[in-house]
Amino acid sequence: MPLGVAHASDPLTKPAGQTSARWLVLAAVEDGPAAVAVIARRLSHTRQSVQRVANALVREGLARNTPNPAHRRAKLV
User: Fold this and answer.
1) How, if at all, do strands 66-68 and 71-76 pair?
2) Which letter, b or e, does each residue of 59-70 get, where b requires 16 or more Cβ atoms within 10 Å of its Cβ?
3) What is the Cα–Cα distance from 45 to 47, expressed in whole angstroms?
4) Nearest of 13, 40, 4 to residue 25 by alpha carbon
5) Can you give 8-71 as a three-state secondary structure string?
6) What gap in Å lies between CA 7 and CA 28, rounded to an integer?
7) Predicted TM-score of the model (pTM)
8) Which of 37, 53, 55, 75 is deepest in the core (most CB within 10 A)?
9) pLDDT category of residue 58 using cuts at 50, 70 and 90
């Protein structure tokens, strides 16, 4: 989803106390964990922007990182 579309949907996500970017990342891992780079490719966003959102979700207890058997340093969200 292009970034402009994500911002347009912020009023829909605000009552839940979230942003569109957070909802997109959470939806990307709804069916199972994925690496940040994979999520970024699915959403057509940069890895860095998805990493910032994922880190915030983990800090707030809304997501967690798990070991990635395919990559030692790139954890799964």
Assistant:
1) antiparallel
2) eeeebeeeebee
3) 6
4) 40
5) HCHHHHHHHCCCHHHHHHHHHCCCCCCEHHHHHHHHCCCHHHHHHHHHHHHHCCCCCCEEECCE
6) 17
7) 0.77
8) 53
9) very high
Residue with tokens 């030692």: 72
Distances (CA, A) of 19 to 4, 12, 22, 62, 74: 13, 9, 5, 13, 24
Sorted by where each begins, the domain ranges of the chain are: 3-76
What's the one-letter identity of residue 50?
Answer: V
Architecture, CATH, for domain 3-76: Orthogonal Bundle (1.10)
Express each pLDDT in 26-54 by its tens digit: 999 999 999 999 999 999 999 999 999 99
